[in-house]
Design brief:
Structural class of chain A: alpha+beta
Strand order of the largest sheet of chain A: 1-2-5-4-3-12
CATH topology of the domain at 175-263 in chain A: Thrombin, subunit H
Helix content of chain B: over 70%
Oligomer: heterodimer
CATH architecture of the domain at 175-263 in chain A: Beta Barrel
Number of domains of chain B: 1
Structural class of chain B: mainly alpha
Order of helices and strands of chain A: HHHEEEEEEEEEEEEH
Order of helices and strands of chain B: HHHHHHH
Distance between the termini of chain B: 7 Å
CATH class of the domain at 175-263 in chain A: Mainly Beta
Strand content of chain B: under 5%
Chain lengths: 279, 177
């Protein structure tokens, strides 16, 4: 029988041996184990999201016919406005292609829009992420930009068989090249610490000294298109405060993000088109 | 032993799913619940070392699979917490639910702080980061105290349905199971 002192240390000894063994396991095996554990949970989370959708469906069934008629009328108006914009868009695209041919400019990369339902939101103090209900089965790729009606949501961080993980623009690890609306000089945007009960926030660096904002007169911060991940002119948020940085060459400041980011149910993934990425 | 580990891992999977759903709705208010201590407390207090260690490690890996951090971090933190609780469990009336809840709260506190030190972004303002972390910790502790008796009961019933008598396992040798 083992002496009592050793007997008491046995759990910690076992822990040490397990840790050493874990460090020696090849990365490929760990990656496979991680994927297996994730895929084990994915069907349960997806099922829960389908149940939520069903709840929404039945709650909508309780609406009166008058409400549905009003909603249909509003949608018809919106559709008419969008139809007119699509025609303008087609004319502008044709003009752009003509100019590109004349000036022999390279064609910017194209994207395929892939709408996806949100399965899970995970907004901790460490990171802010969404799990969406599309993955490899719809050709999603890591790093693809994700948008919604209000602008940028984030980028795809992991792609699994039937789901994908999106890192939100409010997550501290996310950095995007941005500009203020109507300006072409690049600014560095980074997700910030998101306070409880408040809207998501971000920070900016390298803001030119001639840019002034106040909370009552904010400026829209948009993607610059630099780096090739996000298309240009997508809304990131609103610059609400800037102050000179310690080196005096630039300003740094705070960005207020859309509170709707915390309540998203559907997003659109911009999947780079193969032909464009091959170029 | 394998069947007991599988049953406890299934219970952990259920808890991961429920806490995930809770966090989905709490995201509207920028709140987050983390109940890591709950995966460790019951198995460390009531079961043998091998069964408990295997199940808490599996629970840690389940949580690790869904987060953008090194795979195995929570698994080994849970193993460490399990080893500490297992070593000192003889000094407390470990069959009592209230003791289990207290141990789960302390384990959650220690594990949450350890994860904060490992995961907190150093480029962010530490004052704001820790304020948010403490707000999440407070909510987590409240939720854990509320659901811990239910989760302990789920684990007990699942083990009893498998034919494991916790009264018998309490009396057996420390490393036998």
């Amino acid at each position: 029988m083992l002496p009592q002192r050793f007997d008491q240390a046995k759990p910690f000894l076992t822990l040490g041996i397990a840790l050493l063994a874990w460090l020696l396991i090849p990365t490929a095996v760990k990656r496979m184990a991680r994927t297996s554990f994730f895929e084990l949970q994915a069907p349960l989370q997806t099922t829960a999201s389908y149940v939520r959708d069903l709840q929404d469906f039945w709650s909508l069934k309780t609406r009166s016919k008058n409400e549905l008629i009003e909603a249909g009328r509003d949608l018809a108006r919106l559709n008419a406005a969008y139809e007119a914009r699509l025609q303008q868009d087609a004319a502008l695209r044709a003009e752009l292609e003509r100019l590109e041919r004349i000036l022999k400019l390279p064609t910017p990369p194209g994207y395929r829009a892939e709408p996806a339902r949100v399965v899970l939101r995970d907004f901790s103090s460490w990171w802010q992420r969404l799990v969406i209900r599309k993955g490899h089965n719809y050709g999603l790729v890591e790093g693809a930009p994700v948008i919604y009606a209000g602008g940028v949501v984030g980028r795809v961080r992991e792609v699994h068989a039937y789901t994908a993980v999106v890192e939100l623009v409010s997550s501290p690890g996310v950095r995007i090249a941005a500009t203020t609306e109507g300006d072409t000089r690049p600014i560095s945007y980074q997700g910030g610490v998101n306070p409880t009960y408040g809207p998501a926030v971000g920070t900016v660096e390298y803001v030119p000294l001639d840019i002034f904002v106040t909370p009552s007169a904010p400026r829209r911060l948009v993607t610059s298109g630099l780096g090739g991940v996000f298309p240009p002119n997508l809304t990131i948020g609103f610059l609400i405060r800037v102050e000179p940085s310690s080196d005096g060459l630039f300003k740094s400041g705070d960005v207020r993000l859309d509170p709707a980011l915390s309540a998203l149910n559907e997003v659109t993934v911009l999947v780079p088109e193969p032909a464009a990425s091959a170029r | 032993m394998k069947r007991r580990v599988l049953i406890l891992t299934a219970a952990s999977l259920l808890l991961v799913l429920l806490v995930g759903q809770l966090n989905h709705y709490l995201a509207l208010w920028q709140m987050h619940v983390w109940c890591g201590g709950l995966f460790v407390a019951f198995v460390a207090l009531r079961l043998g070392y091998r069964t408990g260690a295997a199940s808490v490690f599996a629970a840690g890996l389940l949580l690790d699979a869904g987060v953008p951090a090194a795979f195995g971090t929570q698994g080994f933190l849970f193993l460490a917490a399990h080893a500490v609780i297992f070593t000192v469990r003889a000094r407390a009336p470990r069959d009592e639910t209230i003791i289990g809840v207290m141990v789960a709260l302390f384990a959650n506190l220690g594990l949450f702080l350890a994860l904060c030190f490992l995961r907190m972004d150093s480029t962010m303002d530490p004052a704001q980061s820790w304020m948010r972390a403490f707000a999440d910790l407070l909510i987590s502790q409240i939720v854990l105290a509320l659901i811990a008796p239910w989760f302990f009961a789920v684990q007990t019933r699942l083990l009893e349905a498998n034919g494991t008598s916790l009264r018998a396992t309490t009396r057996t040798s420390r490393f036998a199971l």
